[in-house]
Queue: 2 jobs
Job 1
Amino acid sequence: MTSTRRTLLAGIGAAAALAPMMALQRAMAADPNERIGTQESHDALGTAPDLQMYGSEVVAMLLYPGFTALDLVGPHFFFASMMGATVHLVTNGADLSPVASDLGLAISPTVTMADCPKDLTILFTGGGLQGTLNAMKDTATIDFMVDRAARAKYVTSVCTGSLILGQAGLLKGKRATSHWAGREALSMFDAIPVNERVVTDGNVITGAGVSAGLDFALALVAALRGAGYAQALRLQAEYAPEPPVPGGTPETTDPQIAKLMQDMFAPFPAMVQEAAATRRL
Amino acid sequence: MTSTRRTLLAGIGAAAALAPMMALQRAMAADPNERIGTQESHDALGTAPDLQMYGSEVVAMLLYPGFTALDLVGPHFFFASMMGATVHLVTNGADLSPVASDLGLAISPTVTMADCPKDLTILFTGGGLQGTLNAMKDTATIDFMVDRAARAKYVTSVCTGSLILGQAGLLKGKRATSHWAGREALSMFDAIPVNERVVTDGNVITGAGVSAGLDFALALVAALRGAGYAQALRLQAEYAPEPPVPGGTPETTDPQIAKLMQDMFAPFPAMVQEAAATRRL
């Protein structure tokens, strides 16, 4: 039960099955040959420069209780829109029950950790707050990350998901980033914290907080399919940001608001320390 | 079963219940008094200028088969992070089964249309492609939108969700936007298509394609809670975009790639026309 897409266009593959009362199972098994545009229009796109139209990437995105949904759904849009890629939503739970995010929005996994493919193109985890700390303390989850990372082409995270990579020993000596509230805590895992939007060190790619997942994913699409393909998906997502208020980083936010938000997050590094202490030596 | 949040910080409220094996139900009912930061640090934020800390907004976000998950999850992050707001995920299905998005990622609704509160602060729908057309043809879905819009403080959409608003007769004579592939089709509903990121006309607020949901939601948060609050949430989302490839709109994308993408989406307006023809006069 994967979301393999053979079309560039988001989800058109499921068109035939998308009657309002359809069952989830039916959607997952939908005819992938249904799509908008002709075969010719799809093949024509493949003639653009620096653009590999088809691929067979295998992506695993970790779901754990308390994850931040936007950390995952941003990259999912881009990964699942790559024609031919297969995206698995991997629960660290015992069964395929929906996994509730930190804000209550629950997403259905497609596979358990045990059933997740062994060899991955992309291993991904998003972040969260208490939920991420709980995942760090869960031996089975960390064992899963260690195992799949050993063979994955790319080992990746967005937001405080990098703390999970750190807990799994995957960031030793590596440059990495995280949500601003957790970035310096990366040094607890012998990582080198870097204040950049997307940080690449070897095959480890980490994104900054929450919304950085969009930039992170486009960078990874460009690495896998070429900058032309990433530009096509950027256009599909109409990603031409115009935030209506200033800020976005502690450095660019109104100092009074930034200080108050930093004060609110101040307990977080100590919470990370406590979770980190539970890892095996 | 709502995702009421009394804390600014995404999901910290659910901390106590977020053990890996927890049930969804438990997460939904989690103790909202658990949070990062002290009560004092939260109250301190309320002293910042142009920032209303607490509120009691009631938000309804429509889920239908084939919706684009990122259209909804972007705004959900910001709406659900407003302290005191209640966000309902409203399925147009018969029960609370997970609703599959166009790319296969399925989200659990929290309420059916019948059980959705009558009086809303924000009525929201995201877009999609075939799934959106199917929703436009579904009488019960359109009836629901008409009814709730009549009393909602804000009637809103992201991406091709504006086609659903149009089908419900909510855009007559209104300036509105949509995904670039569907924007001109808004004229079929007597709307005035506008090529802007976020368009406000009276109490109708529409966002452009997919990723525009982040800008759209921040604009709405600013309207409800002040620009200071929006700035705080922008910082929480670390929304300081740095797309790694050019483009994002047809006008700014490499012309060859833009042309090929536009060709691929070329059949869409005719599909909208066919769906629009099913509406009651």
Job 2
Amino acid sequence: MNTFSSEKQRYAELAVKVGLNLQEGQQLIIQAPLETVDLVRFVTDEAYKAGASDVTVFYQDNESVLSRLRYAKDASLVNQWLPAGIAQAFSEGAARLVILGDSPNIPDALSSARQAYSAANMAVLTELGTLLKKTASNWSLLAYATPQWASSVFPDLEIDVAVDRLWREIFASVRLDKRDAVAEWDSHNQELFARASFMNERNFDALIFSGPGTELSVGLAEGHIWKGGAKQTLTGIRCNSNLPTEEIFTTPHSHKVNGFVRATKPMVYQGKIISGIQVRFEDGVAVDVSADENQSLLEELLTADASACRLGEVALVPHSSPISKSGILFKNTLFDENASCHLAFGGSYNHCMKPGTESDHLQRGANRSIIHQDWMIGSGAMDVYGVKDDVKYLIMKNGEWV
Amino acid sequence: MNTFSSEKQRYAELAVKVGLNLQEGQQLIIQAPLETVDLVRFVTDEAYKAGASDVTVFYQDNESVLSRLRYAKDASLVNQWLPAGIAQAFSEGAARLVILGDSPNIPDALSSARQAYSAANMAVLTELGTLLKKTASNWSLLAYATPQWASSVFPDLEIDVAVDRLWREIFASVRLDKRDAVAEWDSHNQELFARASFMNERNFDALIFSGPGTELSVGLAEGHIWKGGAKQTLTGIRCNSNLPTEEIFTTPHSHKVNGFVRATKPMVYQGKIISGIQVRFEDGVAVDVSADENQSLLEELLTADASACRLGEVALVPHSSPISKSGILFKNTLFDENASCHLAFGGSYNHCMKPGTESDHLQRGANRSIIHQDWMIGSGAMDVYGVKDDVKYLIMKNGEWV
């Protein structure tokens, strides 16, 4: 529990000052797995130091989920009043920090209870999510090096060594290896903002990705907006919901993607590895799909609904990003999406589109799907061009901004 | 964590079946210190097995309280929406289990923050308590042998030995040393109910306690009601809010207590021991008070308000009760009040009076005070008489029911 205390204290400070940008007088609600209590205590200290009026922690226990699935007469009868109360608190301006932990290891025998529970839970979370979008309070995610995660990232290391290693990688990825990480994030956010602004000014019609095994034209949605780094809530608070973040990202045109592309890292889906992915697109649709491993799982993913086979996000990340340099597959989107230029199958983000009605958005190229699954295509051998009025401009050379 | 697992599982089962008498389809809200997670998991299992629709656990962390007192700009800004949500859940029929833990060790330097926090917290809890009384959902308290508590009960034992010993005493006190503890509680509840019914039928005017150093007449309030064992909620569920419980208890007359009495065990107040207590009463008031240790603390207690020096409860417990036989001072009222006949300074219970208006209750002998402090007066050398129309009837001889 006491390993890396000073680093965890600085990590907590970063979460409060940069991740949440917690304001004096704000309430903070923390959702955290039981095993992350040491980090929770540091965050609580930092939150009160930053002027939090109240810090409420909801500890999650995977054993409690398993108990429900094993013994409940109806696993779908989930608590409704607590999420409603939390939503109420957000609408009154509370900030929210989620510390990520392991998923429960659910035996196959409990899969029908799991499905009932997941569906009910998802309905509650969707309602909460809708409220969150409306209230748009500042929030942030924070990773924690649990033994289960560490051993999946470093299967060849002993468990304690793996956990230590993963902590070091997490700290480096959020720039805690620098003396003044808060100042680093200020300039990092400015840089991401400048990149996104540049891309918004150019307002390219399409991007072209060109590299080994890849020659892909990704049309951009009409009225697409590039985002990156700190975002502003409706209440005017700038927060970094993702620590780390290295990407700028926008909305591809759901019907204007053509060519072929080879993934440069495995996709992690439902805890499984899908490696060696190659895809050919025609008019936005992934028409030919192959993978060296778990191809059927990929096919299942892309048929989750009618638009799961189209793109909902395109993101640019320099090959020199800290996470890319680590060379590690974290098997966690919060990290892996910051290692490389990437695409996502599935739904697009409304905040990456200029305002409009739903049908207007769809007509301009937004995509709607129940899935949103990132996969990495960038590398040190990738060139990226912006296309405007049929003229190509080189914007990344060998994986770096030009 | 894994010591006494099978006993803790049985303890959890007892809490669900006897303490709460949890009904099929009921929600359960558990409030528990972080360090009691092993017991919480057993209770969760047993609750779902008993048909709970949902089990929600709120883990408490003393470190979080200390963090607030150390760093918050205003320690009194406590969360309001969560207690309101919990109250809402109770009013909709949720059951409530509180697992008891240690109080935080608050340095003197933080005492002004502590006072601000305590006052604000008390206001929220009082509001919740009022709602709870109205909704009267089934609830129960459950003790947990924390190291801090164990070492205060057994200061001469090594910490692990002390914890083991305290667990054994807890299990014995709730009859888990018997093969079928649930059945034992059925007959125990019936016995307590029969004793209380007997005393209610007799409707004595007063009790006389007679033993070494004690010759005390305790007048009973007009319309007093004896209670004991399982109680019925407004929704008709019989629950044992206190595990263990050995007492039957009622309302003394606040103005009709006369004579002298010597306490047979120390009083524990604010974590301090007040030993060798002797009191002389005149017309309900403790007029002469002495103690071998911490007498000034006792005097402070009895001047907390104008009626703190009068009695609010009188309880009968046979000297042969399991807790009495253990000979241990648990320094915890949940246990110690079940070791011996006892009195309480301070406020009386409305449910121990026949219905009436507030002024009617006061006129009939009920007492109102901000304190309610139990102290033990029974022993194996104590005789107790009931007095009706100036006739004395022996009801306990040498500390046992006759």
